[in-house]
Write a structure and sequence with these properties.
138 residues; Rossmann fold; 61% helix
């Protein structure tokens, strides 16, 4: 059975900007190309990547990033299922986190996958209280 990873926006941003942790994200993608892992990301979290790139480099670059990501072995989840909806609501209410972070966490929780992230500021306390698995890239 393949390992399932749910990407947080900061994982993709680390890869795009060649930040610390980008090698770990590259390894996860390489494993997915070989069929050893499954990668998904909710479209809301992909929106975070898009607007980050748009803000710093403009529309053309942001559109190009989306095009390049479409060539990678990543499933973009276009909707929020009822179970992710309820779990995201619970997590947001409990931990006062951003909506996008609550969706990424809920995707990991519901799927049983590991959230690929570097966002210790948001998630360290949650990791102590929840059974959600984290894959820290730095």
């Amino acid at each position: 059975m393949s390992v399932r990873y749910i990407l947080d926006a900061c994982a993709i941003i680390a890869l795009l900007k060649d930040e610390a942790g980008s090698e770990e994200v590259s390894t996860i993608f390489n494993d997915a190309f070989k069929g050893e892992t499954l990668i998904s990301m909710n479209k809301i979290n992909l929106l975070e990547v898009y607007y980050d790139v748009y803000r710093s480099a403009g529309k053309e670059t942001a559109d190009n990033v989306l095009f390049e990501l479409s060539k990678r072995p990543i499933t973009v989840v276009p909707e929020i299922s009822d179970s992710v909806f309820a779990e995201a609501g619970r997590l947001k209410a409990t931990y006062k986190i951003s909506l996008a972070d609550s969706i990424a966490l809920a995707e990991a929780s519901v799927s049983g996958g590991s959230l690929v992230t570097a966002d210790h500021h948001e998630f360290d306390s949650i990791e102590k209280h929840e059974s959600i698995r984290f894959h820290w890239i730095r």
